[in-house]
Amino acid sequence: MSDVVVSAVCLRLLFPFQTPVGSLKAPVWLRAYFQGLLFSLGCRIQRHCGKVLFLGLLVFGALALGLRVAIIETDLEQLWVEVGSRVNQELHYTKEKLGEEAAYTSQMLIQTARRDGENVLTPEALGLHLQAALSASKVQVSLYGKSWDLNKICYKSGVPLIENGMIERMIEKLFPCVILTPLDCFWEGAKLQGGSAYLPGRPDIQWTNLDPEQLLEELGPFASLESFRELLDKAQVGQAYVGRPCLHPDDLHCPASAPNHQSRQPPNVAKELSGGCHGFSYKFMRWQEELLLGGMTRDPQGQLLSAEALQSTFLLMSPRQLYEHFRGDYQTHDIGWSEEQAGAVLQAWQRRFVQLAQEALAENATQQIHAFSATTLDDILRAFSEVSTARLVGGYLLMLAYACLTMLRWDCAQSQGTVGLAGVLLVALAVASGLGLCALLGLAFNAATTQVLPFLALGIGVDDVFLLAHAFTEAPPGTPLQERTGECLQRTGTSVALTSINNMVAFFMAALVPIPALRAFSLQAAIVVGCNFAAVMLVFPAILSLDLHRRHCQRLDVLCCFPSPCSTRVIQILPQELGDRAVPMGITHLTTTVQTFTHHDANSQHVVTILPQAHLAPLPSDPLGSELFSPGGSTRDLLGQEEGTREKTACRSLACAHWNLAHFARYRFAPVLLQPHSKTLVLVFFGALLGLSLYGATLVQDGLALTDVVPRGTKEHAFLSAQLRYFSLYEVALVTQGGFDYARSQRALFDLHQRFSSLKAVLPLPATQAPRTWLHYYRNWLQGIQAAFDHDWASGRITRHSYRNGSEDGALAYKLLIQTGDAQEPLDFSQLTTRQLVDQEGLIPPELFYMGLTVWVSSDPLGLAASQANFYPPPPEWLHDKYDTTGENLRIPAAQPLEFAQFPFLLRGLQETADFVEAIEGARAACAEAGRAGVRAYPSGSPFLFWEQYLGLRHYFLLAVCILLLCTFLVCALLLLSPWTASLVVLVLTMMTVELFGIMGFLGIKLSAIPVVILVASVGIGVEFTVHVALGFLTTQGSRDLRAARALEHMFAPVTDGAVSTLLGLLMLAGSHFDFIVRYFFVVLAVLTLLGLLHGLVLLPVLLSLLGPPPEVVQVYKESPEVLNPPTPRGGLRWGPPTTLPQGFARVTTSMTVALHPPPLPGAYTHPTAEEPAWSPAANPAASTPGSLSPRGPCVATR
Asked: TM spans, by residue (predicted)?
């Protein structure tokens, strides 16, 4: 090896478009200034480490107490409907007018055969369905000292108002619950109705023995029931259930009026169920086939042959309705009745309903029952949102063990197991404090917060702990003890700041996704990352400083009360001590204090540093014949290599103690990776991976089914699977708002209904059934009473001056026809023959519209209930008395102008998200068309609440990713002060995001708001794997290959440890009993971590070695008579004072490390570029250490 001297060192700007070599430019100066601030911060923390640790723990502990006020949100509407969105505004309008959207809650039973595809349209299968439905309908729960059964809490549609008190009480007890069941086609459907009434001289009246026609005949002599009889006739009640066939005609209670009572023949189930069934009212309670049967098959003529599933639906009152129903009732006057109590009653009943229904059939039965209720879904969401203490504790204990073991060393004085334990505990406290701060800020927790965030934040936070711990052990030799923490922050603080800021920006960008649950999760994650950043940058250095004191005192790691049996000496050589003696051969790193001379040229183009004459004695030849690495400045390396000297140490390490991840990266990984053929293979591999991922991206479908959320293998999952397969029906409504004249917009309303009914997804009504809308029912009712009036008028029963002899309907028409709507002259009898209640075009005269609405609502409760109109403001009550001919009875109050009404519809065939999106777009288009005609309307229902997000989900995803990549570029360019490097980092991050998206397609993971948040966050998380290597490359001297290898040497270990810690943090998610957590969080985040590791440690170093920017600090050689021909002493390296000090030079005393035997890597030294001189063994070590520059903060001592 030839004689070597330290040459001129210059600092120049990184930007590719600025080429003057040797300029001291802004990027280096700014980073040096920033690192000086970090150095000063670290020194201050080290001086006051105890105080900083105490105050930090106090502050974070106080914030963690905020968890006591945390609120876990489980309401689906609050979780999934964007605040301020179109759907949210519509939902708010609905609740403002109605108080709550749902008028009832549904409890469902689905029966399927245990053998897939078996027909259930048999008397035996219907008998088992009856058995399960009976068990469920007989549920009673005791709460608040009262007994609650189905008849008390069920939803009853259209209970009429009767003036006769006895009949009214009997009807109230007997009026049936709304139960949609295939059993309603048979007499056995009456068994599900629990009401009963008592009349003297008769057995208890129940629906199993009630013949309404016969009952009215018996009661006729005792009460005037003409209006009630007309009501039943209009509703086509007939004989109710006793006129229907019996499933089991051998039943002793099968009524004699049943069609098969005499023949004792079982009915043809398929024929009876063909076309659907009806409740006690044939006209208003029609249950379509699709509501009752699933998996139907038909013959070529369309006749029903078989079905694979049966469904019964029990409707219960909503909590508000139940509260209003019993408010002021004698049964609840002593319990402080409230809406919360009503909700508790319903929940208790529903849980018992599901339990008994599932237990109704024996295990060996040929059929199986699946039960579900609204409370079941709430319970699932509540369980989904609960914190799993076992998994949480297990995950953190696993991380503690890993951190402790990975930082333990054979040399006890250099071991950092305690630091690892303290770091993990500190991150855990920071996570708790961040979540506590979120609770204090009012951010509601949800399942993502409780199930995922603690583990994700732990993995991300521990990454920076490993980085600081690694850097702390690799401080440059000769660093004063009181500056060790400052030196650590100076070299790694920029990387920690970059990753943390990018993570926070990533999660803030993810908050652009307009889903409240995911927006809250993103904001909470950003806040937690910020708390982790504060803890790692402020408190963790104090822990390192305390551990430094232990190491300085040579005490055991973890068991710090005991002294270490191993001690290691660092040879400190001063120039006057060495004199003319040669450096002992075999010492590879030497720390020495020397004098240097610094001079600024007049043109300020470069800084020249000249050392005293030093010469290098010949060393053993390099087996690979090249030199790549400059001294790493690692204390661990210095201490380990001292073993080779002739000096004896107190104890020797085992051979395996020399191996670590940095050793692997230096001697194994980098030499192979940076070979030309290896680079080619890497580029080809990642190009193929990118291409394959682009194809996989086309396979990604939108959607998130409820079956993905519910744990597999549970009864709830079995129900949801059966429902999705056989009964994919959704109740929706077309809501019309205020702001337009309903009376004059009837044609537009009919057109809107027709347009909506023609949508592909809308279940069509049978050809024999009239549309189920309030406007159709209202118009048909008016036409009915008009026909009655015309008949009575023609027969003379109604005249201009009297209607008492006419029918009830004729009298109602009489009163409506004479209304003028004028307050001064409200009645005009001349209109009896000059106007019609419905004109020839099928429209209601506008002046009669709201008065007729009052009469219809009061006179046709069954029709009103069947229409599900939900008018607001509700029309006034008005009682009709045919025998009251006073003027007050003739005046009909007009209803207030409507501000809310709705048309009900059923959507079918919605299996995939694309089906929902098509239906939503069609419904929105119909409403937009009506809006152009002056009708304000919007669709309402669960498909619009939970699936409308997919209309713009991909748009928000692309927007968030693009903004985040731009922000990442700006942050990296600002802190790295290198747009070139920032561009390469953003390129790698873009590839990672595309590849993760493509892998989701191959794994069958659908795109919903949750994967979108993870994909957006992947950009920030990916920075953890890339920016450390990029910064190490940027701040290192030499050729591109040399700098890439040196960056790998220093960053391979912390990046790998960070990836492993992230995987360990996520590992507990794999144990979740919710398959949704495993697939959508653990799998996706684990794939992201592996992609980050590959891209950060394989692809990025290769790209940097090929396309990386030039170094910020380069070496230039200045010829001088003093250094061109130095004498060559023998026996090693010798030091001597310079003969003369050139004019303009200043004397500076500093410490440096000289590498005498650097490790080899082929190729880098033999191909130096003109602008990037090859590495020289005597290069300034301060510029050789990634992440640090020679200018320091205020702790630098200069003399």
From this structure: 52-71, 390-408, 420-445, 451-472, 493-515, 521-546, 956-977, 984-1003, 1009-1034, 1055-1074, 1080-1107
Residue type, 598: T
What's the pLDDT at 736?
94
Residue 407 has a pLDDT of 75
Q: What is the pLDDT of residue 1112?
A: 67
Identify the pLDDT of residue 888.
Answer: 67
**Nearest 10 degrees: Cα torsion 603, 609, 613, 619:** -120
Phi, psi (deg, nearest 5) at residue 817: -65, -25
Tokens of 28: 């280096």
- Residue 344's Cβ-side half-sphere holds a number of Cα atoms within 13 Å equal to 9
Q: For residues 35 and 490, what is the distance between their CA atoms, to the nearest angstrom?
A: 5
Cα separation, 954 vs 1015, whole angstroms:
12
Which tokens sit at 787?
């026909």
pLDDT in tens, 538-575: 999 999 888 887 777 666 666 666 666 654 444 344 44
Q: Which of helix, strand or coil describes residue 694?
A: helix
Round to whole Å and give the CA distance between 776 and 1167.
88
Across 326-432, where does the E strand assignment appear?
367-372
DSSP 738: S
pLDDT at 220: 66
Give the span between the Cα atoms of 673 and 1128, in whole angstroms: 38
- In sequence order, the β-bridge partners of residue 110 are 311, 370
Instruction: Report the pLDDT value the prediction gives residue 774, as an integer from 0 to 100.
Output: 92
> pTM for the whole thing?
0.73
* 511-514-518 Cα angle (round to 5): 55
Residue 439: its pLDDT value, please? 92
DSSP string computed for 39-91: HHHHHHHHHTHHHHHHHHHHHHHHHHGGGGG--B---HHHHHSPTTSHHHHHH
Q: Return the pLDDT at 438.
A: 93
> What pLDDT is stored for residue 98 in this prediction?
79
Residue-wise pLDDT tens digits, 901-951 = 999 999 988 888 889 999 999 999 999 999 999 999 999 988 888 888 888
Residue type, 292: L
Contacts of 888 (CB under 8 A, 6+ apart): none
Q: 3-state class of 411 per DSSP?
A: coil
What is the per-residue pLDDT for 468? 87
DSSP state letters, 1110-1177: PPSEEEE----HHHHS----SSS-EE---S---TT-EEEEEEEEEESSPPP-TTSTTS--SSSPPP-T
| pLDDT for the residue 116 | 87
DSSP state of 452: T
- Coil vs helix vs strand at 474: coil
Q: Which residues contact 1142 (CB under 8 A, 6 or more apart)?
A: 597, 599, 610, 1122
* Predicted local distance difference test score (pLDDT) of residue 414: 64
The alpha carbon torsion through 586, 588, 589, 593 (nearest 10 deg) reads 60
CB of 357 closer than 8 Å to CB of 369: yes
Distance set, CA 580 to CA 9, 564, 1037 (Å): 27, 36, 31
Task: Write out the two tokens for 120.
Answer: 């259930």
Distance CA 165, CA 152 (A): 20
Collect all residues with Cβ–Cβ distance below 8 Å to 825 and sequence separation of at least 6: none
Alpha carbons within 13 A on the beta-carbon side of 589: 24
Q: Which residues of the chain have pLDDT under 70?
A: 1-28, 100-103, 158-168, 201, 220-227, 409-415, 553-659, 767-768, 770, 883-888, 1112-1199
- DSSP E strand stretches across 747-899: none
The gap from C-alpha 1006 to its chain's centroid, in whole angstroms, comes to 13
The count of other CB atoms within 10 Å of the CB of residue 476 is 22
Q: Which residues of 170-200 are buried (b: 16+ CB within 10 A; e: fewer)?
A: bbeebbbbbbbbbbbbbbbbbbbbbbbbeee
